[in-house]
Structure formats: C-alpha cells, structure tokens
Recover the amino acids of this structure.
C-alpha cells in the first residue's frame, strides 16, 4: 500500500506478520566409510504461521484497489460493501477456490482499554463481527491490515496489556523514540522487553477470537522504499509471526520487500510483496496500467527461486476482472492473469466482484490455469535478454508449464525449444487458455502471431524415452544441510572473440594483445537490453552520444535491464537539467540512487554508475527511473576477464603462418571455435594441444582481407549456477518416475567424494576431485526398473561438494 491511505490508520495499530520456520531439521549424519543404508532425511517445515494452509498460494479478494479507485470520500470498506463482495465471490468465484475477503487500511477506529484496535463504528454500525460472521457464513476467510510499531496515543495512555497487567504500553517503545513505519505513524517497539511480545500476542489473540484468518502487514522494512536499515521492522515481523502461529493465521508482508533479506521473510512469513503497488492511483479511470504489470518481469527473474510451499511471492492484486475498470487491453489482462498463475503468486483480485464482465470471469475461472497457480511451481525465465520471453516450470509429473510472453511492440511468432527447458525428445503441446491440443512436436513449438503484450500458455508433456535435465535450483530438488547457491563457486558459459586482422601486405606486422580485462561497449539499441515501460529511441541527435543515439523514457518506474558475463559494468548516459535520479540494482540488489541532473549545459557519455570486482560470472544491471522529466541510456561498458592470450592477432597472406592462442580454461571446456555461427572443423581448421589452440594458416588464408572474428565458446555450469556445501553429511534428494538417472556436476581440486543412494540403498561412492575446475561432467549413471525412485547424494569428503544437474528418462 502506498501513501494514499496512510491517514486512515489509527495510531497504535500494530502490524502483523505470518511466518513459520523454514527447513531447520538436522543435517544427515556424516556417511561412514562404507555405509549400507541411507542417512535419515531431515524433515521440512511447511512454512510460516499458517502452516498447512500455506502449502499453496491463497486465492481471494483485497479491498485496496477499489479503495483507491473509488472517488475521494467514498468509504469502500463499509459493512454493506464487504457483504456484497462476499456474496458475489460466493456466487461467481468460490467454486473455483477463491475464499479470502481481505479488508485493507482504515478498518479500525479506536483502541480499547488494553491498547488493542477497535473496529470503526462508522463503517460497521452493527460491529465488524457481524461482517466477519457473514463472510464466514459464506464459507470464506477474513483478512485484516496492520503496520509495525506503536502509536503515540498508546504510549501516552500507558495502558495495561491484556493478560499481562504487569506490562504497560508506555514502556514498550525504544527510547529515545524511533520511527517504525514509512509514514511515521508509529514508533519502534523494543522487542528486547518480554512485554513487547505479550502485547503483540494480545492483539493476535483478539484477532483470532474475532475469527480473523489473515493479516497483511504493511510498510515492512528493509523494503517499502527504505533499505538502508534506518527503518527495520524485522523484529516486528518475527513477533507477529510467533503470535499468529498459535492460531494458524496467514501472515503476508508488504510492500516491495528487500530481496537481500529473502531468507528472513521466508522464515517468518507466508507471503511477501516483491514490488510497488500495482494500482495506478487513477480514481474512477483505471485500477492499474500495463507499465505496472510489465515491471514485474525483471523483479520475478530475481525472486522466483524464493517462493514455494509455505511462502509465496506476492505480485499484489490481479486486476483483470472488468475491462472498463482494469486499465488493460484484453491481451494485457490475459498476460497479467498468466503471470500470476505461472509465478504461483497469491491469486487475489481487486475488482468490484459485483461487476465482473464475461471475459474477466473467463480469465478468473479457467480451471487449468488455476491448477497451474495452485501447483505452486514458480516459473523461471529461459532468458531475460529480450522482450519476447519464455518462462517455464517443471511439474512433479514431468510435464512443463510454459508461458510465451510478448512484451515487445509488434505481434510476433514465438518459439520454445525443448532444449531450453532441459528436455530431450518429443512432447505433446496443449494451449491452456484455449483448451486446445496442438499435437506432438519433436524439438520445440512455435506459437504464431502472439499479439503485442500478449501470451500463450502451454502444457508441454514429454513422450516416451524423453530425457529431462533438472537444474540445481529447481523446486523439486531438496537440500539437507547448509547449502549455498553460487557464492562465486560457479563457472559461467561464455563466448569470447579472437579478432584476426587479415592482410595481403608484405610489410604487415604481426601484433597481439595480452589477455587481461577487456571492455565491451554495448549500445543502447542492443537487442539484449530489455526495456520495461514506454521507451523510445532518438537517433541523429548530434550531441556527442555513443553511436549518435540514445534510448529514453518519461515515465517514473520504467526500467532497463541487461544480463552480462563479466566482472564489472558502467551505466553511461547524458546529464542535463531535464533529467533526474535513477535507482541502480545489480543482481536484484539495490546499490544506489544516481543523479543524471546537470544544472547547466549538457554532458554526453557520462559514467553515472560503475561497479568493478564482481565475481567473474553472470550478472544483471537494472536502472529504474525515479525522477526528472527524462531518463536516458546511451551505452553500457561491460568488463570481462579474457580467456584468450592474445585476444587479437594479424595474419599476412603474403607470409602465412598459423595463429596460436593460450586459453584460460581446461582445454576440455572449449566447446567450439566458430565464425558467424558456423563451427570450424577441429583437427582441420584448428587444433588443440594442452592449453594452446592453433588456427591453421590454410583456414586463415581463405578469409577475406579485413577483420575476421573467431568466437571461442566455453562450456559452463548448467544455467551458469550451482549449489555447494562444505559439511560432510549434507545431501541432495530428488524423487522422479523413470527408468534411468544420471548425475551431472562439476569436478574440481577442492572436491572429494560423495555417496550415491537409490531408494534408500547405497549404490556407489564417486570421486569428484580433478586437478582443474571443469563443468558438466557425468559422474554417475544407471538404468532402473521403470517407476518412482529417489536419488540421494551425500557429501563424504573434500572441502566442497557442488551439485549441478540430474537427468532422468521417462518410459511412459
């Protein structure tokens, strides 16, 4: 929730949060030198305070979108309105799983003699309990709203805490007083005092007595626009989580939570908003805009790994129920519904449910799409390097959910290649929105004419003898112990050019450049820069821009993002008095706000943000417009470690000689050398001897004079990531149905041995040590009787165990 409704909150209404401990069971014991039985599997908790209820994303309705859509002064959360919404849900949506009626800011009116909130008597003349009973009578659940801290009124009143008369509200705040929420409505509670928890418990107990099932806890920091720990509500979140857990009340955190603390939110809450409000704050005109939907894609590219049973990424209200109200086209409405579904986001709508149109009902009641959401398998992008994006998730039955999102400016054919999903073999394809089977396809599927801002949602079902590769961060992979993702232990796949100047001059002199750090200039029109929002290109400006063009936008919240392999990046733009501040994120983490304002004159090609010394790997920079009339992007400078020494050379046709380079990785990691997408023939066009690659003079002599670029492609860890652990006894577990399985992972000098179990029996001990770091090595394979199986891998020695992929074959 934004600032618009902050005034409706009564001082003294504390915030609440729901969460349960994450996986905290004991690690499997270290394996004996020759174990004969599988170590015990650690149990995994369901999640936050709602427990079993949070194993799936919740479905329902929230009042906030209508609260800011309605004309000023319209009290939209009256008893009559809430009962009408409950009745409409009961008649139209409840048969499909929608069950929550969540009442947002402004429901409370006063405090009782114990400092607990009292519902507004103006909104609820017959009492809020009458409304709650009506909602429960329809077989639905009720949600309320709160924020962190304690109000000045409560501090001054110094009231006793219910059930703990030794505690007084005047003793609860931190001294001297500190702000507790974004709006400054209350003050920070000192949770080092036992009475603080007792006070929160007293409110949670009251809510439970009313029959409340859900709490939205707003203005949670780090997040809510503040990530420097000047405001920190984590103690509030923990306290509310513990208080609500006794009653099984769902705790949802808001808003725009800081991803740096994702593990904390996952430990204590059942859901967390990942971005700003979806509402456009356009009273009487629209609930939202396309820009507010499109900006979620780069956020989800960072957040998707953090959702799963027990806690979910919250995208805010899904406002697709009425075309005259939503602010979206029909295609955009379907795209939004698809994004919520494939992201396993809480599926709660914000429309007036008494006025849903036929298309809105069609979107909200498609059982196959709802099943995608309720399966709880957050989708991941194949790549975010384009505005035509393929997102997918692997289901427990070995089918894939695939969404083809056209975020571009023209209709387009869009293709999903099975190999990008980790699938080898044929698959059946079904369109879930149109409920139509397309048939069997060998290597991929092309959807024709996906409209601007439109989508195709597919179920892809592998056929007999297909093989499925499962990445280390897939939700189906379980980890026991203290595992970390990447942590500079990964190796990315990369392609690097050898630039050869071909001449026919007898006087040409050979030259070379030693390897080191090289800088790549990426112009603003590069197809792999993803622009979110209403960007345009300006060319031929004659103002000193790189390649005489820039990309620009005027809308706050619009952003660019670029994924690169390297160790550093510069954001280069123009500075001018028409421009303002830009928020910079690297790998999903906020770095700083930079100014592109210049009071006088115009500064071209200005480096306004630079970061170096990143771990050599895959990174993403994102810039978000914060203020000013314009935001521009001119170019990005990417710094990479060179794997070629030298990385330039000269070939003289009048004095032909082989060109040799030293490569900076194990020679087995070199996949190919190519020119313009065509691979050279190994052994004929080039040879590999140890770490030296020699390009033959016969090949170079056939090249035209000028510059020839030869791309050296090196393999990396699958999807450029791995999981790793240092503790013996830590384990990876994966359950599948099939007739063969392989473990494919890294070898390295810091690795030792691991034990392989199948269905609880020790099968083999494998050695993962190698003199150099290499990727994607098959270290274990076996055939099986077709059926359900469980593979378990347990670290037994070495400094580190890396896990990359599991591949299995289905025989159905």
């Amino acid at each position: 929730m934004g600032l618009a409704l902050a005034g409706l909150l009564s001082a003294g209404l504390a915030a609440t949060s729901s969460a349960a401990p994450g996986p905290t069971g004991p690690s499997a014991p270290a394996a004996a030198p020759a174990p004969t039985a599988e170590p015990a599997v650690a149990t995994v908790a369901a999640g936050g305070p709602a427990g079993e209820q949070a194993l799936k994303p919740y479905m329902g309705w929230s009042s906030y979108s209508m609260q800011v859509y309605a004309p000023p002064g319209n009290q939209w959360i009256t008893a009559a309105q809430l009962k009408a919404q409950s009745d409409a849900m009961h008649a139209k949506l409840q048969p499909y799983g929608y069950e929550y009626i969540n009442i947002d800011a402004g429901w409370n009116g006063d405090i009782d003699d114990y400092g607990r909130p009292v519902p507004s008597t103006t909104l609820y003349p017959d009492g809020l309990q009458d409304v709650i009973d009506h909602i429960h009578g329809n077989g639905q659940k009720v949600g309320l709203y709160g924020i962190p801290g304690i109000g000045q009124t409560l501090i001054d009143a110094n009231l006793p805490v219910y059930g703990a008369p030794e505690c007084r509200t005047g003793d609860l705040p931190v001294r001297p007083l500190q702000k507790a929420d974004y709006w400054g409505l209350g003050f920070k509670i000192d949770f080092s005092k036992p009475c603080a928890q007792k006070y929160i418990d007293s409110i949670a107990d009251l809510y439970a007595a009313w029959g409340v099932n859900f709490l939205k806890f707003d203005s949670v920091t780090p997040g809510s626009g503040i990530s420097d720990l000047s405001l920190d509500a984590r103690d509030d979140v923990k306290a509310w989580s513990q208080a609500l857990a006794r009653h099984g009340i769902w705790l949802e955190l808001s808003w725009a939570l800081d991803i740096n603390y994702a593990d904390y939110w996952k430990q204590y809450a059942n859901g967390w908003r990942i971005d700003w409000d979806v509402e456009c704050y356009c009273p009487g005109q629209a609930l939202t805009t396309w820009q507010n939907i499109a900006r979620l894609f780069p956020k989800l590219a960072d957040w998707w790994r953090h959702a799963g049973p027990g806690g979910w990424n919250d995208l805010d209200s899904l406002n697709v129920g009425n075309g005259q109200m939503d602010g979206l086209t029909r295609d955009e409405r379907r795209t939004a519904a698809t994004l919520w579904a494939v992201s396993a986001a809480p599926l709660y709508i914000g429309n007036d449910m008494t006025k849903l149109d036929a298309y809105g009902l069609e979107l909200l009641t498609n059982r196959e799409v709802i099943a995608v959401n309720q399966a709880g398998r957050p989708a991941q992008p194949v790549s975010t390097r384009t505005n035509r994006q393929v997102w997918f998730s692997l289901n427990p039955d070995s089918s894939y959910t695939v969404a083809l999102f056209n975020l571009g400016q023209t209709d387009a054919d869009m293709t999903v290649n099975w190999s990008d999903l980790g699938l080898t073999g044929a698959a059946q394809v079904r369109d879930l929105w149109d409920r139509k089977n397309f048939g069997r396809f060998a290597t991929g599927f092309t959807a024709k004419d996906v409209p601007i801002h439109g989508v195709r949602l597919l179920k892809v079902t592998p056929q007999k003898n297909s093989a499925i590769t499962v990445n280390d961060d897939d939700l189906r992979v379980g980890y026991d112990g203290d595992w970390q993702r990447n942590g500079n232990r990964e190796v990315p796949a990369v392609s690097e050019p050898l630039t050869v100047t071909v001449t026919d001059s007898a006087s040409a002199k050979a030259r070379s450049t030693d390897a080191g750090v090289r800088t790549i200039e990426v112009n603003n029109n590069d197809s792999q820069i993803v622009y979110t929002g209403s960007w345009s290109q300006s060319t031929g400006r004659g103002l000193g821009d790189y390649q005489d063009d820039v990309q620009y936008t005027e809308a706050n919240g619009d952003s660019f993002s670029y994924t690169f392999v390297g160790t550093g990046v510069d954001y280069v733009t123009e500075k001018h008095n028409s421009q303002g501040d830009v928020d910079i994120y690297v790998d999903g983490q906020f770095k700083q706000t930079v100014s592109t304002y210049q009071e006088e004159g115009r500064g071209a090609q200005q480096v306004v943000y630079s970061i170096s010394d990143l771990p050599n790997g895959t990174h993403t920079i994102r810039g978000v417009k914060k203020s000013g009339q314009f935001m521009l992007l001119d170019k990005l400078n990417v710094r990479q470690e060179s794997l070629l020494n030298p990385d330039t050379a000269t070939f003289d046709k009048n004095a032909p000689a082989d060109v040799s380079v030293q490569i900076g990785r194990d020679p087995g990691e070199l996949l190919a050398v190519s020119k313009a997408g065509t691979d050279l023939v190994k052994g004929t066009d080039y040879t590999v001897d140890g770490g030296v690659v020699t390009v033959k003079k016969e090949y170079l002599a056939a090249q035209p004079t000028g510059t020839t670029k030869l791309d050296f492609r090196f393999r990396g860890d699958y999807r450029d990531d791995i999981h790793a652990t240092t503790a013996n006894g830590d384990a990876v577990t994966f359950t599948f149905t099939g007739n063969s399985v392989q473990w494919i992972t890294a070898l390295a000098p810091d690795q030792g041995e691991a034990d392989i179990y199948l269905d609880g029996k020790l099968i083999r001990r494998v050695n993962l040590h190698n003199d150099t770091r290499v990727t994607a090595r098959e270290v274990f394979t076996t055939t099986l009787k077709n059926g359900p199986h469980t593979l378990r891998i347990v670290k037994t020695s070495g400094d580190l165990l890396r896990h990359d992929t599991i591949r299995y074959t289905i025989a159905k």
User: Anything to note?
Assistant: The longest helix spans residues 194-210. The domain at 519-641 is CATH 2.60.120.260 (Jelly Rolls).
